[in-house]
UniProtKB/TrEMBL annotation:
Keywords: Transferase. The keyword Ribonucleoprotein does not apply. GO terms for molecular function: CoA-transferase activity. This is CoA transferase. Coiled coil: none annotated. InterPro entries: CoA-transferase_III_domain, CoA-Trfase_fam_III, CoA-Trfase_III_dom3_sf, CoA-Trfase_III_dom_1_sf. The keyword Transferase applies. Pfam families: CoA_transf_3.
Length: 408
């Protein structure tokens, strides 16, 4: 079966995480991704653990993309971009607002060679507004969007600063929204058959802000504040609206996530713990009363859970049909039979490493297809000649000249 997005071509003028994550999602589903990199490469090539100076993360982050190096400050690079855009369906970029226009590559210029081009702009705060020109990374988007305040223990329990989620979640959320937006804009384009225009109001122009991507995920935080003046507070490992639902200690030093926050599930948990009297206890008789007394209830469950190692405890909870799982480490994820069965842990051959690199599989699964990893993150500029000669029809001597002049 042909790849879902086979025939779709997207130009990525991005770096770090947000735009490259967007295009990786589309590339995983078969789109032809041409990644423009500066001569010294995307900074992510130097991030994370490395072997012989090569990033293991890059092997997954850059997969299914063709890499071409360009010095965008050179006028010759601008002409190459325009030549590529002529055969692309979309451009995804995450420079500061207005930066591409300063390089002579604004939407009006790009749509001069491809009138129906879809453009996805990803930035910290969006393409307009008072914060438009502020510097921002994912962590700033997470702070402005309200997430960083909530990733903390309950008020009064700790003086340590709010913790990071653990990955660049703000960037990835923005990239995910951008991928969805690209496909929506392409649908509109192909359905209507209308050319685009250079204005921000064009249905083919996407404006994705990291801060807004995070903010949109904050569940009832804003409605509750607007109606009740309630400022949502951190809850540590628990949930403010349901109990019991938390991380509980085990005898072998791990944490077990247990979500028994419905009446039938709480009854099952009480029986499993050998404490049937909890079922009729006025403090725990409903979800509302359990939330009000969550600290006491969590202490009871913690006392019980700490008497078992994580494997035995998980077996008991699964057998009782109670939603639960140990807090997985990377090793647990890699060995998990469900991930393995669904091809979510893949050993990918990467010529830059002696051994295959474990990579996360492809989401979403479409039909019976689990997607395709056609190649890992390529070496810097690996496809430069292929693209310039094969797509733009340049002669190898022209390519050599551009390289000598520091254009590529």
């Amino acid at each position: 079966m042909a790849a879902l997005l086979n025939g779709l071509r997207i130009l990525e003028i991005g770096h770090f995480v947000a735009a490259p994550f967007c295009t990786r999602l589309l590339g995983d589903l078969g789109a032809d991704i041409i990644k423009i990199e500066p001569l010294d490469g995307d900074p992510v090539r130097q991030w994370g653990a490395q072997i012989d100076g090569k990033s293991l993360w890059w092997s997954m982050h850059g997969r299914n993309k063709r890499s071409i190096t360009l010095n965008l400050k050179k006028p010759e690079a601008r002409e190459i971009i325009l030549g590529l855009v002529a055969s692309c369906d979309a451009v995804v970029e995450n420079f500061r607002p207005g930066q591409l226009a300063k390089l002579g590559l604004g939407p009006d210029v790009l749509r001069g060679v491809r009138p129906d081009l879809v453009m996805a702009h990803i930035s910290g705060f969006g393409q307009d507004g008072p914060y438009r020109d502020r510097a921002a990374f994912g962590v700033v988007g997470e702070a402005v969007g309200g997430l960083r305040y909530l990733t903390n223990h309950r008020p009064g329990e700790s003086d340590l600063p709010p913790v990071r989620v653990g990955v660049s979640i703000g960037d990835s959320l923005a990239g995910l929204y951008a991928a969805f937006g690209v496909m929506a804009a392409l649908w509109e384009r192909d359905r209507s058959g209308r050319p685009s225009d250079s204005g921000a109001a064009s249905p083919h122009s996407l404006d994705v802000a990291l801060s807004e991507a995070v903010f949109s995920m904050m569940e009832g935080m804003l409605p509750e504040y607007g109606a009740l003046g309630k400022v949502k507070q951190p809850t540590g490992g628990g949930i403010a609206t349901a109990a019991p639902s938390n991380a509980y200690p085990t005898a072998d030093g791990n944490w077990m996530l247990i979500a028994a926050n419905s009446e039938p599930l709480f009854a099952k948990l009480a029986m499993l713990m050998g404490k049937p009297e909890l079922i009729g206890d006025p403090r725990y008789v409903s979800n509302q009363t359990r939330v009000e007394n969550a600290a006491q209830l969590d202490a009871v469950i913690s006392d019980w859970s700490s008497g078992f190692n994580s494997e035995d405890l998980a077996d008991k909870l699964v057998a009782a049909d109670i939603p639960a799982c140990k807090a997985y480490t990377a090793a647990d994820c890699a060995a998990d039979p469900q991930f393995r069965y669904r091809d979510m842990v893949r050993a990918v051959d990467d010529p830059q490493f002696a051994d295959p690199v474990l990579q996360a599989g492809i989401v979403p699964r479409v039909g019976s297809s689990a997607g395709s990893i056609r190649w890992p993150g390529p070496p810097l500029g690996a496809h430069t000649e292929e693209i310039l000669v094969g797509m733009l029809g340049m002669h190898p001597t022209e390519v050599a000249k551009l390289r000598a002049e520091g254009v590529i």
